[in-house]
Known about the structure:
Blueprint: H1 3-12, E1 22-27, H2 33-45, E2 51-57, H3 60-63, E3 69-71, H4 84-105, E4 111-113, E5 130-131, H5 133-139, H6 142-146, E6 153-154, E7 157-159, E8 167-169, E9 174-177, E10 180-183, H7 184-188, H8 191-195, H9 197-203, H10 205-213, H11 219-234, E11 242-247, E12 260-268, E13 271-274, H12 282-307
Parallel strand pairs: 1-2, 3-4
Antiparallel strand pairs: 5-11, 6-9, 7-8, 9-10, 11-12, 12-13
Helix pairs in contact: 1-11, 4-12, 5-9
Amino acid sequence: MNHSCLFCSIAKGDVFGKDQPIILVLLDIPPMLPVLDGVVMELQDCALPLLREVIPTDKVEVGFKDLDAAILVGSMPRKEGMERKDLLKANVAIFKTQGAALDKYAKKTVKVTPPPADLSVGIQSVSVSSDTRLNSSTAQSVAMRCGVSSDKVKNVIIWGNHSSTQYPDVHHAKVNVHGSETAAYDAVKDEAWLRGDFISTVQLRGAAVIKARKLSSAMSAAKAICDHMRDIWFGTKEGEFISMGVYAGGNSYGIPEDLIYSFPVQIKNKTWKVFDGLPINDFSRAKMDATAAELVEERDTAMDFLSQ
């Protein structure tokens, strides 16, 4: 994660608007406080008009007090060769602590986005939405196939987990080609690619980035978080939906209700709602169920860790 990119985008107004003053509260472990002091100096030196104050701290009662929005980027990042079970074990304890602090100190209206590494295990709330935007952005590679820019593609869906079982679905996506909206399958004209290499490329993109740079995604992850929180703040466009990992309770797609699962959602007045009623074919059903099964297993593993 490129924290500097994230902080700068927020302080410039790219997330909460160009007229919204910002107070940044930066929470970290005690050994990192000298580093935070350096971050504070850099932010001050940027002379960003919206940035009113930067508060570095190692105390949760300060870090979470009266927050309007919380972006949780303090998890252990995935490294090359790391098993997801190892990642879960390390991060479940972190999120349990942060979830308790949010409940105790933050505003009850706080909007929370944790990183997608464990899809919010231990923080299940209607105020929490996990970021699967990076996967959606990768899925917009459909645009390249059609010879248009990525903003000409809408309603790509990421179903399920942030893992190699995630299902990037373009059955309901639209591509604007020369001013005319076309179904993605009709625009691409290559069903074998859409059901094969396209899906595997999106599913394995994170691992490919780690293999190439020996670290997990940085700039793209920071931008995805900003896009995700901006959509929470300002809502989705009429007739469009985006993908978020949200609490599955009451969903119409047959997904177990006690999971955090990535669905298509629409947002209005800072409140998300799963976009219901999309037809699901047999191909999609199998992919959606497979990623749900993995999430059930990971949820049970996480609960075991929490009980130890």
